Every structure is written in C-alpha cells, then in structure tokens.
Amino acid sequence: MVTTQTLHEICGLYSGRPTSRTTSTQRETKFVASALPNDIRDTIDLADGSKGVIFRLQALETAGLTKLDKLPFSIRVLLESALRNHDGFLVTDADVTTIAGWQPRGERSEIPFIPARVILQDFTGVPAVVDMAACRNAMVELGGDPAKANPVVNVDLVIDHSVQVDIDGRDGQALLKNLNIEYDRNQERYEFLKWGQHNLSNFRAVPPGRGIVHQVNLEWIAQAAFRKQVDGPAGPETRLYPDSLVGTDSHTTMINGLGVLGWGVGGIEAEAVMLGQPVYMLAPDVIGFKLTGKLKAGVTATDMTLRIVEMLRKKGVVEKFVEFYGPGLDSLPLSDRATIANMAPEYGATCGFFPVDDQTLAYMRLSGRDEGHVKDVETYFRAQGMFRTAQSPDPEYTDTLVLDLADVDPALAGPKRPQDRVNLSQMKQHFRDSLTA
Q: What is the pTM of this model?
C-alpha cells in the first residue's frame, strides 16, 4: 500500500527524483542536446481529413542507426516506444540506439519499454486502484491537489474474476440472477471501482457480464494503433503510435495475435507503468517461427496450437520473444492467431507476436471497429514499415523454427501438460503402451 512516506520513493513524479536505475550521468543527459536525428516527427493523413503526428522509424535508418527490414516486427514496436518517449532521462539516446542496433545474437543490455496502456482484472487490479486512492490521500496530507494523482497511461480494469455460478441455466434466467447475486456479493468493491472510473483520469472499469478480460481486450479495447490527443511542441496534436500493454494476468499475451505487443506482469510493475515508469528488461532474443501451407480439413486451431506448443517447449524459449512469419500467415485468421498467442505462458515465451497485416484489419472490421480507424491503422503501420505483407522480407531472428500447417494432424494432449501431445491416430496404441509400461 502506498503511504505518505513511500509516495516520493515509488513515483518521483511529484518530487522530480530519479528512479533507482537512473545515474547522475543519465540525469545530466536530460539537459544535453540529443544525438538522435532531428526529423523524427512527421505527419500522416488520417481518414477524417486531419493530420496525425508519428515518430518515423525511417529517420533512424536514414541516420545509419538501424536497418528496419532486418529488425523483427516486435523489436520495431520497442524501438518506436523508445523513440517517442525519448527524453534523455527515463529513455536516453543510448536506449534508443541500443534497440535500433539490435542484433540476432548480440550482447543483451537493459532497455526501457513504456507501454501505451495497462489492463487489469478485478482480482489483482483492485489493489492497484486502492493504491491510487492512497496516493490521493497522501497528496492531501502533503498539501497538494489530490486530483493531480492519476494514472499517466490509459488503464482498463475488466471485472471478470468475481463471477460465481449459484444458479444453473434451467430456467433461462440464470445469467441475470447470477449477475444480481454477484453485484450484491461485491457491492463495496464495485462501488469503489465506480468511484475510480468517475474520479481518476485515464481509468475505465468494464462492468461484470461483458466477458473475460482477454476476450474484452481483443474484441473491444485494443486499437492496434493508439490515437491520442496530446500537447505537442506547437500546441495540441493527434498522435498515433502502436498499441501495446502490460497486464496483471499471465494470459495477457493473447493480444499479440492482433499485433499488439503485450505480456503479463506483477502488480508492482503494473502500478509503476500506470505512474509513467518504464518496464526495464534485457533486450530480448527473438525466435522466428515460420508457418507455411494451410491446415487440412478437420484440423482445428487447437490441434495447430498444441503442435506449436510442443515444438517451442522442445526448443526452449523462456524469457524470449517468439515472432510468427511466413506465407502461412496469409490465410491464418485472427481467431487462430489469438489461440496461439494465448498459450505463450505454456510454451514459456514472453510473448508470441503476430505482425499487423490484412488479417488484422479483417478482424477489426469483423469485430465492429470504426472503418475510419481501421484505415488509419493501415496507413500508420505502412508508413512506419511495420505492416506485414506477402512481399515483406523476412527479418533476422536469433533462431528459427518451421512448421508446414498441412502436416498438423488432429491430436490430444495432457492430462496435465499441453506439450504432452499425441496424434489422435496413435492414441489407441499410446494408451496401451502407457498401460503396460
């Protein structure tokens, strides 16, 4: 819990104190002219006729700091975040050039990542909102304005972990009755979250009964390209940048199926991001997973995902990014991609990332996103060299795996571990062998 004593210690936002990572040398860079190119800001035409400000990655390539086509798409997201948030303090010249110069097997050093938003669920998210309320109390005790204590980035809390089934579905009213019981059972918590939504800037709460957090995130909240009104050097401007996030649930990784970089973190890390602090991490190894061909008739997304999990578990991808590429993506729908991305905790990777492409746009239209926004997503990612097409050159990866989707067969896995996969055609013999072993 945040107290008056610890308020300054965990978020030097009010006192100007640096984080523990920041050295005196790094603090000085805030006042030193940047060695980065001067032309990183640019504009693109948006669907509504206005201009959108972007931080153009090609400026780094022109300056000889990177080769975009060689960088994995997921690393390009990290690079854009560093370039856009560069201030010489939390994100320095060295941070930007480190990410820009990422090499498949190069030395790994610490880099900052400032996600576009944070997603919470009610089990782990309520303590974070309580801490924001405690920050406001501390502001009052310190003689400040409590209304200034708000999340710095957008935060969404989806209420989905409180549901209990007290009534079955026989009378056709089970959903409504269970919801009413849930509201009665959690009245104080829900009233508090409603207070948060009405009083905290950049905070939304999704009420019960709308679906699980990962589904709501994929179908409704995620934007692919974030659009935000900010105060720029010359006044208010519309800024576009890749949607990205951290969440307080291990399966936050499901959103990578939409081309939105994200993964699960602990509550303290999530609160730090809410307060404008970066996630610090070693520049990741990126394992390229090439998909070719198409699934045979009768083979499901589950069969494919279990095969991929088995291959990645054998490879060993803990604390690494996995990025999917290859011609197999052209016909792989978003529902299948989300299934693969959702299983990242099971195959051990930080995330399983699918770049934004035509399948991403098709899903955004299918799920009812505004057509103007979908067009802006395509315009933005094409302008940044981050839109995957069949003609896109393959990036350079730390290591690669290849799977022809036509080779995937119906399978079963378990009973405990998803990597314990057996083809359905071999199940009878496998059962007999296990029984007599």
A: 0.89
